[in-house]
Design brief:
InterPro entries: Haem_Oase (IPR002051), Haem_Oase-like (IPR016053), Haem_Oase-like_multi-hlx (IPR016084)
Oligomer: single chain
Number of strands: 0
CATH architecture of the largest domain: Up-down Bundle
CATH topology of the largest domain: Heme Oxygenase, Chain A
GO molecular function, one term: heme oxygenase (decyclizing) activity
Structural class: mainly alpha
Radius of gyration: 23 Å
Number of helices: 14
Largest sheet: none
Protein name: Heme oxygenase
Distance between the termini: 66 Å
Organism: Eremothecium cymbalariae (strain CBS 270.75 / DBVPG 7215 / KCTC 17166 / NRRL Y-17582)
Keywords: Heme, Iron, Membrane, Metal-binding, Transmembrane, Transmembrane helix
CATH superfamily of the largest domain: Heme oxygenase-like
Helix content: over 70%
Length: about 325
């Protein structure tokens, strides 16, 4: 069980926020602050892990789009449950959580549609139409850890509807907080984007960063949305939940961080196995992109990479010709 904070009446009077205000960081009664406090060690660990994985993915489009694909299934699973609770609540607790969701959820925060737009861009070469892409998404066999998390989201929310509020805080606020940084990093690594004819680099950047964009009207509008979301989340959850529900939400919030790290690690392991094959075309792409985009590599290392790519190309051509003519 997670750490359970205690406070006396005087603490409550000192730290309780004024109505309509985002709770201060010292407001121990706010559910969001309790989640942040109980997940801070895991949050720090996850931040370092994710940034390390993203630094690599930023140089390799085939890795980056695998991450976008994984997050599509995660957010799609969460938003399916949000929609179910908003549209067809059937139990007393589902009605309770539905009422809470209505107080803070807004369509601008929905990510699955924006992720789909990113996937249309990154997978356009293989699936040029929306129907073909949707068929791919329907038929795609999720890796084991991703499948477990998607199942967990569905099953846990069906069992305990209040846990949907864990994802509403952890996933969406984390994305909002890191979205601007991610967009900035992506704009500096435009080599990972496909290059359709007639599309400028700026257009490619916009087409490939929908996941991190909450408003097409600029940063100021995004900040207003975030402020409104956080404020309404606090006002809805402060009195609308009992203590056991809040503790369950905190537990699931902790599980979120570990699940995301596991899923990104799973993507890394899958690619590592493929890249270990010396005759993999992905290995050639990987080495080429490291040579082009990794600013930490010295000229000597880049020269060695160029020689390695040439050597692998030579071997692949040799064995292909040998298969054909011998």
């Amino acid at each position: 069980m997670v750490y359970k904070e205690t406070m006396n009446d005087s603490d409550s009077e000192i730290h309780s926020p004024a109505v309509g205000m985002i709770p201060s960081p010292t407001d121990v009664g706010a559910l969001a602050n309790r989640i942040n406090f109980c997940t801070r060690d895991m949050h720090t660990k996850a931040d370092a892990f994710v940034m390390g994985k993203m630094a690599l993915a930023m140089r390799h489009g085939f890795i980056y789009r695998q991450g976008i694909l994984a997050f599509y299934y995660i957010f799609h699973a969460v938003e399916q449950q949000i929609d179910r609770l908003l549209e067809t609540p059937s139990t007393k607790e589902e009605l309770q959580i539905s009422a809470i969701l209505r107080q803070f959820w807004c369509e601008e925060f929905r990510r699955s549609g924006r992720l789909l737009r990113d996937l249309e861009f990154f997978y356009h070469h293989e699936y040029p139409t929306q129907n073909e892409l949707q068929q791919f998404l329907n038929d795609f066999e999720l890796p084991p850890k991703l499948q477990r998390f998607v199942d967990f989201i569905r099953d846990k929310t069906m069992e305990n509807p209040s846990t949907i509020l864990a994802y509403c805080h952890v996933l969406y606020n984390a994305l909002f907080a890191g979205g601007k940084v991610m967009r900035s990093n992506i704009y500096r690594n435009i080599g990972l984007f496909p290059k359709p004819k007639g599309i400028s680099a700026a257009e490619s950047s916009r087409n490939g960063t929908n996941f991190f964009t909450f408003s097409d009207d600029g940063v100021d509008e995004e900040n207003k949305l975030r402020w409104q979301y956080k404020k309404n989340y606090e006002l809805a959850t402060r009195e609308g939940l009992d203590e056991n529900q809040k503790l369950e939400i905190i537990d699931v919030s902790i599980a979120n961080f570990q699940a995301v790290m596991d899923i990104l690690g799973e993507i890394g392991e899958t690619n590592k196995k493929e890249l270990m094959n010396i005759f993999s075309f992905k290995l050639l792409t990987f080495l080429s992109n490291e040579w082009r985009y990794n600013q930490k590599l010295s000229s000597e290392v880049k020269q060695a990479l160029a020689i390695a790519v040439f050597f692998i190309n030579f071997l692949m051509i040799y064995f292909t010709l040998r298969t054909i003519f011998w």
